[in-house]
Amino acid sequence: MLIVDLVQSIVDGLLFGATYALIGIGFTLVFGVMHKINMAYAAASVGAAYAALRLIALIGGPAWASLLIAAAAGGVFGLIIYWLCFRFIPLSNPLATLMSTVGMFLLAEEIIVHTTDGMPQNYPVVVRGILDMGEFMIRGDLVFVFVCALLAMVVLLYLLYRTKLGIATRAVSQQPVAAQLVGIRLNHINALTFIVTGMLGGFAGALIGSAVGLLSPLLVIPLTIKGLIVTVIGGLGSIPGAIIAGLLVGMAENVFQYFRGVTERDIYVMLLLFVFLVFRPGGIFSNTVKRD
Amino acid sequence: MTIPRLLAASAFVTTMAISSAMPAAAQEREIRLSGFGAMSGVVRSFGINSKAALEAAADEINKSGGVKLGDGTKGKIVIDYFDDRCNAEEGISVTRRIASTSSLVGIGPTCSNVAEPLFGVLQKKVGDAGDSGLQFPIFTDVAIKGGLAKISEWAFRNVPDEGAMYAALFQWLKKTRPELKTIFGGVEEDFAHSRATWYAVMKEVAAKEGFEIKGEAKWLLADTNFTNQAREARRAAADIVAISAHPFTTCGMLKELGRQGVKPKLVIGLTSSSSLETLQGCAAEAEAIIIPTSFAPVTPEARAAADRAAKFNGSLDLHSGAAYEIVAILKDVIEGEGVLAKPDTVQADRAKIRNGLSKLTETKGLIGISKRTEEGEAVKPFLFVHAKGGKWEVLHNPTK
């Protein structure tokens, strides 16, 4: 029974880790382009999912429509966060944008709490079905999240490496002054980055709501923490790294919980983070360990 | 009558009218009661409902003529409500702030993790000159973890006795559902109330009533993945699954049990989950879950109170229902103890209210008479409710 349970824990963890991967991609993309952390990213993602839930309740529509509405809302929230927390804040001071996004994180969380009175909201199931293989079970909705995470990675990599927007984005990321000299509008590209990552975040928020079956302000802090861990383990700015790290963190959580219990689980996840920071500070796909 | 005489007469009448109205206004004193609890954060709904219940009860008393004070004048209840964010430091800070005003009683807090340290800063024994603790009566409506009022003689609670409630529930199940033999527990490990209720109440009384404990699964308040825990429940194949958790994770676990096809014969929930939150989060999955509660709109008084609270944008449940009752209890105590509610009698009035509360042996509640213990706790009447068709319905009334 031990092996069966262990394998099931690993599979469940990997699949649930796909939700962390989706959030991690958003964190890492903003860092990759602007070299800044957007602490309000997960809060905005959950906020976008709430907005979709409200709109669906208001106008009706199938459950899958909530994914599209959440993506649209996420894009709008992304732009708002860019305007309020980055556009007019001195980017040369790394603490300024960090604090502005922490403020936005708290504001977004409180807006959600005040709008919903903190009550959990039932979220419609987008994908139903469980692959039941006797002792083993695989949840269809988590497989869907997993596929979405892979698709998001492919689409984002295509956008970054095969389109003019991607070239401009990478130029802004690598040489912002040179990019401006060749006519690339820095603010325009940064805003677009926030819209794209916001859309991805909204989509992720809706998928997470669907996978959990609920939306609650309680999701905001854990998702922010998991998103940051995934970003660090995956390597700041690495999209494939965020995917692998998301799956790894999800799996590690479940396995540690299986062996050590729920009260010790997070201790080991944090230890994993420290192991990466010490031995592989550049993340999973970094080539060399650069140390002082 | 000449014009000067007319003017003089009208001036006299006006003066008399004003002077006769003034004493009435002066006689109507303010009786300030301060509620405090979570008005922000994820337990905000508790604070909103308590505030609405306090305001509704005060409004009803004020409309019915107010409170008769010790010198024969009438007083009107004024409710303040403060946010402690379900945080111990903020709860203590808010209480000290309330105690520095003319407020006569603090009504709260929401969370047991606030109540426990807060009661610790109150004077332990009344009249102990060596104890410089706060001498301010606190009457708790929500924080439900067992046995907290004994920490201080200034602390009183109007919360249900979960030990008695779950003991009665398991006794009733043993009698009416003899086919139920085994139980599996699920507990929110990092929340004081949930944890205490599983380990010290549900688990113990179930074992005492002869139910075999087949195991327990643990999770945290903000957890979203319950696959391991539901699998443990599936493997245990117990007749009853008891979930000692608040609505967010209760719903998460119920949904995961459903996904994994775990169908226990009965699901029992935590008292605090017999609320609107659970129905908003997972009405379908919570269908038939049984929860003991100390409030349901089963009497005319309870129904009227629920309607009044709704007008103040709140929902009455076992916690906010307790807040509503507290205002009525305080009215009786204020009248019985001859409280004056004057600016210079604040501390004396607080002492009178504390004495009055400590003398109570029973109080009138919304669904029946509550007994009071010497330790400042309530033994409230209760019912078993179950979720049916997206509503809480009374399943059984143990007092009948």
Describe how the helices and strands are arranged.
The complex is a heterodimer of chains A (292) and B (400).
Chain A: H1 2-34, H2 41-59, H3 65-87, H4 94-116, E1 121-122, E2 130-133, E3 136-139, H5 140-162, H6 164-174, H7 176-181, H8 186-212, E4 214-215, H9 220-234, H10 239-260, H11 262-279
Antiparallel strand pairs in A: 1-4, 2-3
Chain B: H1 3-27, E1 29-37, H2 44-63, E2 67-68, E3 74-83, H3 88-99, E4 105-107, H4 112-120, E5 138-140, E6 155-157, H5 162-176, E7 182-188, H6 192-208, E8 212-219, H7 227-236, E9 240-244, H8 247-259, E10 266-269, H9 276-282, E11 290-293, H10 300-311, H11 318-337, H12 346-359, E12 362-364, E13 369-372, E14 378-379, E15 383-388, E16 391-396
Parallel strand pairs in B: 1-3, 1-4, 4-5, 5-6, 7-8, 7-9, 9-10
Antiparallel strand pairs in B: 2-3, 11-15, 12-13, 13-14, 15-16
Helix pairs in contact in B: 2-10, 2-11, 3-4, 5-6, 8-9, 11-12
Structure, described:
The complex is a heterodimer of chains A (292) and B (400). Chain A has 292 residues and is mainly alpha-helical. Chain A has one domain: ABC transporter involved in vitamin B12 uptake, BtuC, CATH 1.10.3470. Chain A is 75% helix and 4% strand. In chain A, the strands form two sheets. In chain A, strands 1-4 form a two-stranded antiparallel sheet. Chain A has a two-stranded antiparallel ribbon with strand order 2-3. In chain A, β2 (130-133) and β3 (136-139) form a beta hairpin. In chain A, α2 (41-59) packs across α8 (186-212) and α2 (41-59) crosses α9. The longest helix of chain A has 33 residues, at 2-34. The model of chain A has no long low-confidence stretch (mean pLDDT 90). In chain B, 44% of the residues lie in helices and 20% in strands. In chain B, the strands form four sheets. A six-stranded mixed beta sheet of chain B has the order 2-3-1-4-5-6, sandwiched between helices. A four-stranded parallel beta sheet of chain B has the order 8-7-9-10, with helices on both faces. A three-stranded antiparallel beta sheet of chain B has the order 11-15-16. In chain B, β2 (67-68) and β3 (74-83) form a beta hairpin. Chain B is elongated, with a radius of gyration of 24 Å. Classes of the chains: A mainly alpha (292), B alpha/beta (400). The interface between A and B is large, with 38 and 35 residues.
